[in-house]
Request: fold
Amino acid sequence: MDRLNNILLWAGLGCFALSFLLSGLYPYLITDGKTPEASIRELAEDVSSDFRLLKEAYPIDFARAFPEGVNALTDPELATIAADDPRRGQSEDAWKNAYARALRDGRDLYIAEACWHCHSQYVRPVGNEVERFGPVRTTAEDNNALQRPVLWGTRRVGPDLTHEGGKRSNDWHIAHLRNPRSTSPDSVMPAYTWYFRRGFQIRRGVSSETAEREGIPADQSYPYPGLYDTKAEAEVALEKLKSSLSSNLEEEAERMFVAEGSGPDGDALALVAYLQWLGTWSPKTAEASK
Ligand code: HEC
Reply:
């Protein structure tokens, strides 16, 4: 019996050693010697629309988490400036730099939280994996700095995330991260509540006509983008918002108020940016955009 235990122990340690060795060697084994590993900044050349929407929906936490994006203009902001305005060029650079930071931070959090313990990033050409998770992963797709260390994962408690980008909305990811059971009943994924913080929001209640017509509670209200640290800050922002409304929206302005709320912090935004990026880059598209 002792002998068997010994064999099992050494076989187990051997498997660990082999996997460490292989993941260490893999980056060298997959290179053709001509194509350099893509840097994170190169991966961020193609800024996804989901990332742009994160800034629109969560401007305060976005600005804190990705200061490089201070000059990045959202689509509604771009619509208000001329086509030859130099701010457009600066904005594109700012977007790419902010995106690069978000991808790196998101990847680091994915490692730190051991998301890889339950999720693989490797679609194999076996079984019905292609039907479930999308095209088989190629080695060329791993030839980039975000795959160092290679995030193949260890087990598959949850689905493979190779092609996760664009599959769900930002809102879905944020709701899922806060409470996986809210989007996926019976999920065994932990709730990552520590990526959410409390603060104050500007909200607007529905009008009594809308409540009646749509059959929703009369005290239903919806938040405006932005989660302020203090009530005073939110109130200042509310006054500014009200004064920017045209006079025929007076009745709307009356339904606006400040209330306590909670929302994703910068880390949650980075994780979502990373998840929405997965599978959207391929060496071919990078070549084509040069
Ligand atoms: C204990 C295992 C476990 C851990 C740890 C875990 N997940 Fe999950 N995850 C699951 C399971 C199971 C599902 C499928 C059910 C669901 O949607 O919640 C899932 C689903 C998902 C999905 C939805 C995939 C899709 O499109 O259907 C995403 C995205 C995701 N997880 C991201 C993460 C991230 C990011 C982390 C780390 C912060 C993480 N998971 C940690 C088990 C886990």
Remarks:
- Residues 110, 113-115, 117-119, 157-159, 164, 167-168, 180, 184, 187-190, 192, 271, 275 surround heme C (CB under 6 Å).
- The first strand starts at residue 196 and ends at 205.
- The mean pLDDT is 93.
